[in-house]
Amino acid sequence: MADSNGQKGFAPKRVPSYDELLNCIRCGLCLSVCPTYRQAGTETNSPRGRVALIRAAAEGKLELSPNFVDHMYRCLNCMACAAVCPSGVEAHEIIVDARIEIDNKLPQPAIKNWIFEGLVPSPGRMEAAVWPLRLYQRSGLRWLAEHTGVLNLLPYNLGKTAQMPPTLPMSPLRQRLPEVTPARGERRYRVGFFLGCAQSLLFAESSAATVRVLSRNGAEVVTPKGAVCCGMPAMAYGDLDSALRLARQNIDLFERTGVDAIVTDCATCGESGKHYREWLKHDPAYAEKAETYSSRFRDISEFLTEIPLDDRLGEVKAKVTYHDPCHLVRGQGVSAQPRQLLQGIPGVELVEMKEADWCCGGAGTYAMTHYEMSMGILDRKMENAAATGAEVIASGCPVCQMQLAYGVKRAGLPAQVTHPIALLDKAYENRDR
Amino acid sequence: MKTEIVERLRRIVGEEWVLTTPEDLVCYGYDASYLQDRPWVVVLPSSAQEISEILKLANQEQLPIVARGTGTGMSGGSIPDQASIVLSVTRMSRIEEIDLVNLVAVVEPGVITADLQAEVEELGLFYPPDPASLKQSTLGGNVAEGAGGPRCLKYGTTKDYVLGLEVVLPTGEVIRTGGKLMKDVTGYNLTQLFVGSEGTLGVITEIILRLIPKPETKRTAMAIFPRLEDATQTVTNLLGAGILPSTIEIMDTTTIRVVEEYLKMGLPVEAGAILIVEVDGREEAILPEIEQVGRVCENSGASEVKVATTAEGCEALWKARRAVSPALGRLAPAKQGEDIAVPRSAIPEMVRRIGEISKKYDLVIPVFGHAGDGNLHPNLLFDTRDHEMMERVHQAASEIFGAAIELGGTLSGEHGIGLVKQPYIARRLSPPVLELMQRIKATFDPNGILNPGKMIYPEQS
């Protein structure tokens, strides 16, 4: 690795800055909040350790060995370390920078290139790709598999993780949602809806609820069909070029819609949308456009707490606990807003769980690539959730929801996992009835 | 030979808990000082029995062992060299017992300090020692380093809470010292000999800690003094007025300036010092007491006094003090927080001399610390890549130690000697004292396998 910040051209290759590595004074405060450290118990699985590894590599004292690469991918990117660091070191960013460097320097598996260059940029191809899963879930194969143990024959924990996705909607929301959903009553806002891939493919009903709630509150909702993946998965896997290509595509697309705000109900899409300005700040053609795009981006809970909310709500009787998605609480500083919305629903009793802002271990594809570690982290989360006695665990992130639902199943908890906005939608529905 | 020893270690602690990859070795080669190296192998045992077997093996083969907790020490005490076996006790992290009748806690050495505090506070009890690293440091490390903290003035340091230990000696015997006893004068006080011994005499495997009832609440005052001398005199005046604060923290002019540049919270950059005073106890007792603290500060020359009567107000007053570390972190790529302690009366002279040293060597040296107990943290800021600067840093440190000793002070109040202050130890300890300590070391550790050459061997550095 180089010891300078290689910002050349308009698509900079991000290289960990050596000065930033030295800013780590190794006090170890990050050990106290790092889920992988608390789980594994070895320094090598801590933020301080990972920064030390990257520093050693930058100094030429470590090779980019398979073990080194493995350690770079053990980080959840939950940002808990950066939030407590007294020296302002952003270990999660440094680790992504290292992954980008690995992606540049080492030959990458063909499947990775196919996923980020072929599959992810095309919503249609992604929708086709989940068909086998839908078939599996709906044809009785799932029942057969789960009851015969045949799943245990699959490699890489695929057997266990095949049980993780929720039952898929009959069709992705993208195919069903009109380009323009009119406002109910007087039109007060024109809002772009960034429909995330996971929301559309896995949690279509939840995003349909988001659109209903927006419309009810006077928003005309524009959902461009050409929107592509937000780029976060590619970025997390160190494929900077793909991430930036996707970002530029989304920026161009939403620019043409002329909306006041761009809203998403996916924590991850929100974080990347708000960070396009940093991703593209060295690209003269896009820096300004990215700035505008990011400044318009809002999580749904932010948008709804910034406007005068229609408070004609019916009752939803439930004891609810809220889990903070990393990409909301630390990625965007959003934690009060979803709680405020939940507390505004008549009948909802909001009970805080211990460590509500700790990562659930979902972290993108982490549960699939690091099953054991992920489950250890999930068990801790479930213990805290169970202690509240809540019947509903609310969280505004599809990956968290998937992980938490799996956790509920594993722990045999009598709880339901949902998006906070889905509860709000239910309250409106109960009023209308 | 070497692979055979690794095999034997694996048989003792299990395959999974012997680490040998270059990545693992890098991660067990540093602490919170600026030093680093790479050990030969890392082993993470889970019991005193396993540690005993490891030490027997090491003793027989004459292999150096460096024990550590989470590696948050400030003086390089847990830095290994390339021949060393690092022995981490972090897996031994059980709170074994909280005895509500005798008010003691029995813990394994890998328990995180803050975890014990949270656990006992839920029961209305209190474990007062509060090193700045309490959220990440282990109790084993706190005992081995004799860790302190701001609450020392009223509550003392780690040493005042250790009632008994289980220790594995370098020769493999597992011994017990002390017990759940408030009084015990049977034989030498070996318990206290291990406190602050920096991993040179044995590996601590169990600790019996004294607990006290938890103070109901606390209140804070902040006072700004145009003259540093008045700030230190205030400490004496407070005690004279019958007030024993739990904490009196001090920040000098340079620190105030650095924090103000970072926070822009309107601190007076011309002030000589800021004192932050905290009292704790029953609410009805401390509300009038904190008002009185304010009056004493005013009468002692403070130009401005803020008293917080609510918990939120207290947090706001601590903001400046808590910002010191991040503010310094942004000024330079590396720092060495020194840790001298002087008699309270010598604080103004000590700060004045540090100011001179700072000018002489053209270095920014903010001073802050615990005015109540005379423990000051002059922070040397530097860039290890700048060799000329490092030379100045070493000379400045050496002169700071010299000044502290001249004023009746010591090299380290709470961080320990380790490797960082080893070159200076002979200035503080006379030849017969050093020789006595070396003989004690040889008695415990005849083959010199535990943290060899550190702390009391000035000639080795």
List the keywords.
heterodimer; A: 433 residues; alpha/beta; 25 helices; B: 461 residues; five-stranded antiparallel sheet; 16 helices; 36% helix
Helix content of chain B: 25-40%
What fraction of residues of chain B sit in β-strands?
A: 15-25%
Structural class of chain A: alpha/beta
- Quick one: biggest sheet of chain A? 5 strands, mixed
Describe the protein's architecture and organization.
Chain A is of the alpha/beta class and 433 residues long. Helix content of chain A is 51%, strand content 7%. Chain A has 25 helices and nine strands. In chain A, the strands form two sheets. In chain A, strands 1-3-2-4-5 form a five-stranded mixed beta sheet. Chain A has a four-stranded parallel beta sheet with strand order 7-6-8-9, with helices on both faces. In chain A, helix 24 links the parallel strand 8 and strand 9. In chain A, helix 17 (267-279) runs antiparallel to helix 18 and helix 19 packs across helix 21 (336-343). With 461 residues, chain B is of the alpha+beta class. Helices cover 36% and strands 20% of the residues of chain B. In chain B, a hairpin with a 4-residue loop joins strand 5 (95-99) and strand 6. The longest helix of chain B has 20 residues, at 387-406. The model of chain B has no long low-confidence stretch (mean pLDDT 94). Chains A and B meet through helix 3 and helix 4 of A and helix 2 and helix 12 of B.
Summarize the helices and strands and which ones pair or pack.
The complex is a heterodimer of chains A (433) and B (461).
Chain A: H1 18-22, H2 35-40, H3 47-58, H4 66-72, H5 80-84, H6 91-105, H7 110-119, H8 123-129, H9 131-138, H10 141-148, H11 158-161, H12 173-176, E1 180-181, E2 189-193, H13 197-202, H14 204-216, E3 219-222, H15 232-236, H16 240-255, E4 261-264, H17 267-279, H18 287-296, E5 297-299, H19 300-306, E6 318-322, H20 326-329, H21 336-343, E7 348-350, H22 366-369, H23 371-388, E8 392-394, H24 398-411, E9 416-418, H25 420-432
Parallel strand pairs in A: 2-3, 2-4, 4-5, 6-7, 6-8, 8-9
Antiparallel strand pairs in A: 1-3
Helix pairs in contact in A: 3-6, 14-25, 17-18, 19-21, 21-25, 23-24
Chain B: H1 2-13, E1 18-19, H2 22-27, E2 41-43, H3 48-61, E3 65-68, E4 85-88, E5 95-99, E6 104-107, H4 113-121, E7 125-126, H5 139-145, H6 152-155, E8 162-168, E9 174-178, H7 190-194, E10 203-210, E11 212-213, E12 217-225, H8 228-240, E13 247-252, H9 253-263, E14 273-281, H10 283-299, E15 304-308, H11 311-322, H12 324-329, E16 334-337, H13 347-360, E17 367-370, E18 375-382, H14 387-406, H15 425-428, H16 431-444
Parallel strand pairs in B: 2-4, 3-4
Antiparallel strand pairs in B: 1-2, 5-6, 6-10, 7-11, 8-9, 8-10, 12-14, 12-15, 13-14, 13-17, 16-18, 17-18
Helix pairs in contact in B: 1-3, 13-14
